[in-house]
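Researcher: Structure for this, please.
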Amino acid sequence: MRIMILNADYPRFLAWLYRKQPGLENRSYAAQMAARNASLFGVADFYSKNFEALGHSAAEIHVNNPWLQAAWAREHGMAAAVTEPAMGASDRLPAWLLQAVAPFKPILRPFARKVGLSPKLDAQAEEILLAQIEDFRPDLVLNQDTFHIDTALMRRIKGIGKPKLVGQIGISPTRGEDWRVYDLLISQLAATVAFFRGHGVSAQVSHLAFEPCVNDALPPATTADVDISFVGTVSADHRQRIALLEAVAARYDLKLFGNIAPGLPASSPLHRCFQGEAWGAEMYQAMRRSRITLNSHIDMVGREAGNVRLFEATGVGTFLLTDFKDNLHTLFDPDREVVAWRSIDDCIKKIERYLADNAARQEIAAAGQRRTLTAHNYRERTRAILAAVENL
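Model: Predicted structure, token format:
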């Protein structure tokens, strides 16, 4: 089977990658793709490598990387101008407005696309993508970015050889889309799966994962010199996260790796905790340096656990203190493989307890890593996706 995986990268990551490697934008498509995957950011080439290990031909396309896509176009006789990717709406809208609309994003996304506040490919990017589909002729397309690649574009892709279409979405889906173009939709959230099934589309739960080869690619682990870390975004979509981190920062030397969206009050203690953005390998190293790393899901997921930080942190062997969710026990054994907090006060008490108990902390971290490496890896996820497609 020929499998094409479609994805998109954060504009801030792309800016970092090409700033770090001057001249990369002028190199070949293969060289740019190799550099992007070597960063270890996101899912890199983890899906394609594991599909190939199962006997299939697979490749990724990063649809919003203008330099990468322009290189492919040039190498295939297409003219292509490079337009740098725009930053997200959080960099352009006032914080009060972002906070007000956060609960209504699934309903507002179609309007946001029309006025340029939501990710969307321009005409040139769409034509390059369609040419890549025509060139590769996939039997299966796995779309991991249903924002840049909406259902209208997926219908055009479906018309090229009629591949099976699988969509992967990890948050509340956009309202008003005709999701029936997909043969299968997958999500780590049972509520999202139920939404799709309620609209007559085949859907099933498929969790995110960790790629074990990341540990081989990272430099040797250093002594843990960070007591408590958090790796991720602080924005209007993360009110619970902000409350937790501010409470922790008031008591401990919290290190915050990631980005702080505009609008966080100047009085917030998180500003002094900010260590800058950490992408890919740097992110994994930040977690490995930590005695405890915290997790707090985005507000919109409600009572379901499933963000990728669960698997990234445990995968590199870090002690994970995560927010309690009703389904957490289906992923990890609480208090044996990870530890869950149920309130801010509870989190503070558990930080104090496990900072003081090195043996218990290390034992839980090691057990969590074993669980992730054996059960929550991309080989298992790709095998499950293929089985689901075969059962359609």
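Researcher: Any notable elements?
Model: The longest strand covers residues 226-234. Residues 213-375 form a domain with the Rossmann fold fold (CATH 3.40.50.2000).
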